[in-house]
């Protein structure tokens, strides 16, 4: 299996590369500047400069793009649209490192995590931008996408246990009432999905076991 990790120099991107390499997969890291990953195959290119030819030989493309400043938040939607346009009509799957703010907190799917009164105001613009990008992604029937939302507490420095609970559209809690997962265990879940391809054109979510 040939996998490309886009924006591979980020914290999650590097862990995705490491996890995929540990399983013996053929991994190409893609990022601006120099290679900061464990991959021996590297493409130094901005996401928005990628072409269809750049991605045509991969079975799976993982989008680990992230933006946090007010002026760059719209790039969540723009970057995802660009990758979808490049992969439109192909057999290549697109896996997206998503957000938790758009997970539903009611059975009717009328309220999201970001709608809760205790959701931090500082993160609302980011959650809104990522939710808008997901909404646009759901409309793409020409791309074999999967959107993977982390738990509410997404821990950059957490340990890798190799265990997680797979959820769907709703915020899932573990047996201790927690919604948390480490970046490392999220990478385990993402590469599991890359290998299995069980949730094409679906949003899934993961939480620490």
Write a compact overview of the structure shown.
With 209 residues, the chain is an alpha/beta fold. Helices cover 28% and strands 22% of the residues.
Question: By helix and strand content, what is the structural category?
Answer: alpha/beta
- Helicity, in percent? 25-40%
Instruction: State the helix count.
Output: 5
Write the element-wise H/E pattern from the N-terminal end onward: EHEEHEHEHEEEEHE
Strand order of the largest sheet: 3-2-1-4-5-6-10-8
Q: What is the number of strand segments?
A: 10
Q: What is the CATH topology assignment?
A: Rossmann fold
Give the name of the CATH architecture: 3-Layer(aba) Sandwich
Please tell me the total number of domains.
Answer: 1
**Residue ranges: pLDDT <50 for 5 or more in a row?**
none
The CATH class name reads Alpha Beta
GO molecular function, one term: oxidoreductase activity, acting on the CH-NH group of donors, NAD or NADP as acceptor
Organism: Pyramidobacter porci
Pfam family, one: NAD_binding_10
Protein name: NAD(P)H-binding protein
């Amino acid at each position: 299996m040939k996998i490309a990790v886009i924006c591979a120099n980020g914290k999650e991107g590097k862990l995705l590369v490491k996890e995929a390499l540990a399983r013996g997969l053929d991994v190409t890291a893609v990022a601006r500047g120099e290679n900061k990953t464990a991959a021996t195959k590297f493409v130094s290119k901005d996401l928005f400069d990628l072409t269809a030819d750049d991605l045509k030989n991969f079975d799976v493309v993982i989008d680990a793009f992230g933006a946090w400043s007010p002026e760059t938040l719209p790039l969540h939607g723009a970057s995802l649209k660009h990758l979808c346009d490049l992969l439109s009509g192909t057999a290549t799957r697109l896996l997206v490192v998503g957000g938790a703010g758009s997970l539903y907190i009611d059975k009717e799917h009328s309220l999201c995590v970001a709608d809760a009164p205790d959701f931090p105001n500082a993160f609302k613009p980011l959650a809104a931008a990522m939710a808008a990008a997901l909404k646009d992604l759901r409309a793409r029937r020409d791309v074999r996408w999967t959107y993977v939302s982390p738990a509410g507490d997404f821990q950059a420095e957490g340990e890798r246990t190799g265990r997680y609970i797979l959820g769907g559209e709703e915020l899932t809690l573990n047996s201790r009432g927690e919604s948390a997962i480490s970046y490392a265990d999220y990478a385990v879940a993402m590469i599991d999905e890359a290998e299995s391809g069980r949730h094409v054109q679906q949003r899934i979510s993961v939480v620490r076991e």
